[in-house]
Amino acid sequence: HLVESGGGLVHAGGSLRLSCAASGLSFEHYYMGWFRQAPGKEREEVSCIDSNYGRTYYADSVKGRFTISRDNAKNTVYLQMNSLKPEDTAIYYCYADPAAGGEAFWGQGTQVTVSS
């Protein structure tokens, strides 16, 4: 069970911090990440972080502006989004992917809207 929060409306250049709280899974054994989907566009993987070593991935479109982190003690993954642009407007979905293979889990999504 994944629950995202932190979305909202912000002006271009502003910041938001998304959170995704996990329950019912061994959080430390899951890769955690974020996808986004804007109207009329394909779903895009934004960022992910591995389960043990803190290795991260970022889409080119967000490199240098977004930072993913996780707190295994709180079963939570974060996405700090700075220097937001109107093209970052999308629904952002958190996911949990088991490092050992198996079914991934998805959150319900949180809307991020960046006005110009």
Rg over CA atoms, rounded to whole Å, is: 13 Å
Order of helices and strands: EEEEEEEEEEE
End-to-end separation in angstroms reads: 34 Å
Specify the biggest β-sheet.
7 strands, mixed
- What structural class do the secondary elements suggest? mainly beta
Average pLDDT rating: 95
User: In what range is the share of β-strand residues?
Assistant: over 45%
Low-pLDDT windows of residues: none
- In total, the number of strands is 11
- The percent of residues in helical segments reads under 10%
| Net shape | globular
Q: Helix count? A: 0
Task: Supply the key terms.
single chain; 116 residues; mainly beta; 7-stranded mixed sheet; 4-stranded antiparallel sheet; 11 strands; 0% helix
Draw up the topology in text.
Layout: E1 2-5, E2 8-11, E3 16-22, E4 30-37, E5 44-49, E6 56-58, E7 66-71, E8 76-81, E9 90-98, E10 105-106, E11 110-115
Parallel strand pairs: 2-11
Antiparallel strand pairs: 1-3, 3-8, 4-5, 4-9, 5-6, 7-8, 9-10, 9-11
Report what the structure shows.
Helices cover 0% and strands 53% of the residues. With 116 residues, the protein is mainly beta. It is globular. The model has no long low-confidence stretch (mean pLDDT 95).
